[in-house]
Structure formats: C-alpha cells, structure tokens
Automatic annotation (TrEMBL):
InterPro entries: Homeodomain-like_sf, SANT/Myb, TTF1-like. It comes from the Eukaryota. PROSITE patterns: MYB_LIKE (PS50090). It comes from Uria aalge. This is TTF1 factor. The gene is Ttf1. Transmembrane segments: none annotated. Residues 123-171, 172-254 form the Myb-like domain. It holds the Pfam family Myb_DNA-bind_6. One of its GO terms (cellular component) is nucleolus. GO terms for biological process: termination of RNA polymerase I transcription. SMART domains: SANT. SUPFAM superfamilies: Homeodomain-like. GO terms for molecular function: chromatin binding.
C-alpha cells in the first residue's frame, strides 16, 4: 500500500514525503527492489550530476537493449512518439523485454532520473546553440496555442522539451536585458553576501565563537564565493534579472576583483590564458567534462572563478573545433591540443 511504500522508500530518498502519490507508486514498482539490492551490496542511492562511469553504463544498457530488440536507433527507443508508424511495435518490444529494468541496470539512482539523463544524451535536438529572434517569436506563439505542452512544442521547434521550457520561462520573466544599474549591482552583492553568510553559519553551527565566525567570514574559501550558490533565490531578491544573468554578472565582478581589473582574455595575456587552459586540460587526461577539476584548472589559467574559465573553454570549443557536438570531450581536447595550440603559440 502507498504508506508502506513511502516508508520503505524514505530509507533511500530522504525527501520522499514531498513526492506525489503517483510518483511513489511508480518508484515502488521500478526502484524499491533495486534500491534494496544495492543496499545489500553496500551501495548508496545517488543524486546530482551523473559521473562518466554512469554515462557509459547508460550507453551500454541502451546498446544492449537495441541488440536484443532489433530497434535500430536510441532515438526511436527514447523518443518513440517521433516515429508514429513504428510506435506500437517499439512499445510492445519495450514491454516484452522489460525496458525499465534493462535501462537502469547497474546504476544506483531513481529510474526516472536515469531515463531523463538517457533522453538528454541521445536527443538529436539537444545542443543546438542560441535561440534566434525568429525562434523566440515562434516559441511565444506555440505556447499561446498549446499552453505548457512542452512535448508538443519541442516537436514543432525541433528542440528538446527541457530547452523550450527553460527558454520560455526566461523570455516571460520580468528580466531586464540592458546594462546593469548601480542599484541592481548593489542588490546582487547583498543577495550573494546573504547566501554565503547563511552557508557559513550552517557549516559552523554553534561550534565557533562570535570572533571566530567574524574571522571566517573575512577569510572564506575562494570556492565559496561562486560555487553552488542558490541563483534562483538570488535572482528573486534582485527582482529585475533572470538567474543566469545574475550568475554571469557575479562571475564578471569576481573575475574583475581576482584579476585586479586586467583583461585576461585579450591581447597577449589572452593568448597565454588559452594556451594554459588547453595544456592543463590535456595533461589531466580525463574522458568526461564532469571529471574535470575546474578549480584546479582556474588556478593554472590565472586564479579566476571556475565558472568564468568554463565559459571561456565553451567559447574556445565552439569557435575552434569543427563538428564539436559530435565529438567526445577527450576528442575535443585532443583536437585543441594538436591543431589549435600550435597556432596560438605561433601567434603569441
């Protein structure tokens, strides 16, 4: 029964009390037995960012299921509604060969999260870059016609469900898109300071004296200044900006402070920063961007906020690597090291 299922799931998912009854029923069927099996093996249920190992396991599970069923692509398997002629056959094969069970094999996470991750990885409509003015106008028109039916709208726009939903919320927010005013910057500074102060107080609890807390607030770790800040809450306090704008502006402020006003990505300093960035990423020899220690990379480049360095890497990748969307992370780094690095060194 529902109460028993909720009680048993609570051992693995602390926030289960906030989950709807319908979701509890699905989790009881898809997840509970798996979670108990993982517990016997001493493996905890995970949340948050998927690791390189988990992404590879998803790919293996998908490939294995395609071989078993004869379905000819991951897109058909995960986006069956895009193929109406094959829909009934694919759904029957998924039911006959226990798709839910096979997809989640070896991954200690709720099935729903694994499914969403797989859809993101194999969606041909993902990673299509910025929205044009025409696309934004279409999105507003389609939302007026179909409401928040993001599945329908994503099909009409050839963008992923998540992409159209997030872009619409950004367009419809009361955000200002012009230069930041002094008042807005002040509100942003106060909101960030309050968020950092709350985090420090939570970490310290009552273990430190007032003087020690005061000292901790002055000498907080650099990471605390920009890592995992509650940007939605901060944006709500600023009032006139979307959360992504707040994050970008704060990164710019921090970068300016940390670099003492120097333009690290212009002129010869910019060339040297790009060279250092490519070399450091190549030396790390990681297969997935989720495995990169961006804090360490930011030290190598110039003691900057890691969000700033990540943004610069993204720009470098997009502007210098042909067909980067179809390459793995390691292939992108290899290309930058072998093809772009000699060119930058020559320019320098």
């Amino acid at each position: 029964d529902l109460d028993t299922a909720r009680r048993e799931l609570e051992e693995f998912i602390p926030h289960v009390r906030n989950i709807s009854d319908n979701s509890i029923r699905k989790m009881a069927g898809r997840d509970l037995a798996r979670f108990k099996q993982f517990k016997k093996q001493g493996i905890a249920v995970k949340f948050g960012r998927f690791s390189h190992k988990e992404n590879n396991q998803i790919r293996k599970n998908i490939e294995k299921f395609l071989l078993i069923t004869g379905i000819d692509s991951a897109e058909k398997l995960l986006f069956t509604s895009r193929y109406p002629a094959d829909k009934d056959t694919i759904n029957r094969l998924k039911a006959d060969h226990r798709f839910c069970e096979k997809l989640s094999e070896g991954i200690p996470r709720p099935w729903r999260l694994i499914y969403y991750r797989a859809r993101k990885m194999f969606d041909s409509n993902n990673y299509k870059g910025r929205y044009s003015t025409e696309e934004k106008e279409k999105l507003i028109k389609y939302q007026a016609l179909h409401g928040n039916n993001w599945k329908k709208i994503s099909q009409l726009m050839s963008r992923s469900n998540l992409s159209v939903a997030m872009k619409y919320s950004e367009i419809k927010s009361a955000a200002n898109y012009g230069p930041w005013s002094k008042e807005e910057i002040q509100k942003l500074m106060h909101a960030v300071e309050e968020a950092i102060r709350k985090r420090i107080e939570k970490e310290d609890g009552n273990s430190l004296s007032s003087s020690e807390k005061s000292h901790r607030e002055i000498s907080i770790d650099r990471e605390t200044l920009h890592d995992k800040l509650p940007w939605t809450e901060i944006a709500a306090k600023v009032g006139t900006r979307f959360w992504r704008q707040c994050k970008q502006k704060w990164t710019t402020i921090l970068t300016n402070k940390m670099s003492k006003g120097r333009w690290l990505y212009r002129g010869t300093e910019g060339l040297q920063a790009k060279i250092n960035l490519i070399k450091r990423l190549y030396e790390m020899q990681v297969e997935d961007k989720n495995e990169v220690d961006w804090e360490e990379v930011s030290h190598a480049v110039g003691h900057l906020p890691k969000a700033y360095v990540q943004a610069k890497f993204y720009k470098l990748k997009v502007t210098c690597v042909p067909l980067w969307q179809k390459k793995t992370f390691s292939e992108i780094i290899d290309y930058l090291f072998e093809e772009k690095l000699p060119e930058l060194e020559e320019q320098l």
